[in-house]
Design a protein that fits this description.
The radius of gyration is 24 Å and the shape is globular. The strands form six sheets. Strands 4-5-10 form a three-stranded antiparallel beta sheet, with helices on one face. A two-stranded antiparallel sheet has the order 1-2. A two-stranded antiparallel ribbon has the order 3-13. The protein folds into two domains: 242 residues, no CATH class; 52 residues, no CATH class. The N terminus is likely disordered. The chain contains 13 helices and 13 strands. The relative contact order is 0.16. By secondary structure, it is an alpha+beta fold. The chain is 39% helix and 17% strand.
Length: 362
């Protein structure tokens, strides 16, 4: 606690500034049947539910990834993209499910004139007029999230798509908790959300960020549209997102706002199963996703660390930590410089990462 005095010619008032000391702990997880590690506990529980129902790691990963749309929508969702690394214990082999970004075929670079300065987006690239590369109908790549999880499930899983999306439907029906973090996220993006009526209708009820009154039971923001979309996918199959009723609604909404994504873009999208990028590090072989990911940068980090002279031992030495920090710094400085304009500004991330392992070691 810190104490001080505030004085003027009329009075003297003692000020007290209370300090809080927090201890953050992560509980140790033990399991014979598998583990799901996620930033969002509720999404992780969706994956655990599938493991407990006899599913393998890929089934649980699909359930977790789909559930994130209902509980962590600012990081991932049905309109997103991604990459999944799959290790099959029986084959001792790694596969990459690539459902990364593909631009609509009618996208025109002339629609993105530079306006000077840098963006406040993740990569702080040169800013574009109206930030139209960051949000809005022209910023949208072909969404690969649904087909990516469905492809992984069909190739490596044991459960049906309807089974693994069931927990996500329940979560969307329940609604996202209107806690302090939801209020923070929606308030931070309120300006952008308010530009689009459909977004504002969901995330800015009555024109304001959702908030639970002090002392009141925790409120929930209903995600009726998301739940209904997921029900259609459970009923008609995941390709409905690309060739059915859901696809038609996506194209209609985007084009009404001035976007160029069309039915052909959706119909032609198919996730790919490709070989990983592999790099030797010590006695291990590390598998990474290639393409438009950080895998290439991480491969460079591991190759650089392999040449570092720090002492090897049962635990990293101080020299090792210095080498880790310097190598990572250099790798990502090169990544950001070569991929876009370098900047000292810190930018928020918008990606979900999670890991799943089952009892067989997948």
């Amino acid at each position: 606690m810190m104490r001080g005095l505030f004085a003027n010619k009329h009075s003297t008032m003692k000020l007290e500034h209370l300090a809080q000391n927090w201890t953050v702990r992560k509980p140790l997880a033990r399991s014979r049947g598998g583990i799901v590690a996620t930033q969002n506990r509720i999404a992780g529980e969706a994956g655990v539910r599938i493991l407990n129902a006899g599913g393998n790691a890929i089934d649980a990963a699909a359930a977790t990834g789909l559930a994130l749309a209902a509980v962590e929508p600012w990081n991932s969702g049905l309109g997103g993209i991604g990459f999944m690394l799959v290790y099959l214990a029986r084959e001792k082999k790694v596969h990459v499910v690539d459902f990364g970004p593909i631009s609509p075929h009618r996208l025109n670079p002339d629609d993105f004139p530079l306006s000077g300065g840098t963006t406040t987006d993740l990569f702080t690239w040169p800013s574009v007029k109206d930030d139209r590369n960051v949000h809005g109908p022209l910023s949208i790549a072909v969404p690969g999230h649904v087909d990516g999880h469905a492809t992984a499930l069909a190739k490596f899983g044991t459960k049906s798509f309807a089974e693994v999306i069931a927990p996500a439907i329940e979560l969307a029906d329940l609604g996202i908790a209107a806690d302090w973090y939801l209020t923070l996220k929606t308030a931070t993006m309120a300006k952008e959300l308010s530009r689009y009526p459909s977004s504002a209708a969901v995330w800015l009820p009555n024109g304001f960020p959702p908030i639970t009154a002090q002392g009141a039971p925790l409120g929930r923001l209903k995600l009726k549209g998301l739940a209904n979309t997921m029900r259609l996918l459970a009923k008609n199959g995941p390709r409905d997102f690309y060739e059915g009723e859901v696809a038609r609604n996506i194209v209609k909404d985007i084009q009404a706002l001035g976007g160029v994504l069309d039915a052909e873009d959706l119909k032609n999208f198919h996730a790919r199963i490709v070989a990983p990028l592999e790099v030797e590090y010590g006695s291990a072989r590390v598998a990474l996703a290639g393409g438009l990911t950080g895998g290439q940068s991480m491969a460079g980090v591991l190759q650089a660390l392999a040449k570092q002279p720090f002492k090897k031992g049962p635990a990293p030495s101080a020299d090792a930590f210095v080498a880790y920090a310097q190598t990572l710094r250099d790798a990502y400085a090169e990544r950001l410089t070569s991929m876009g304009e370098a900047s000292d500004e810190k930018s928020p991330g918008c990606t979900s990462h999670f890991n799943v392992i089952d009892g067989e070691g997948n």
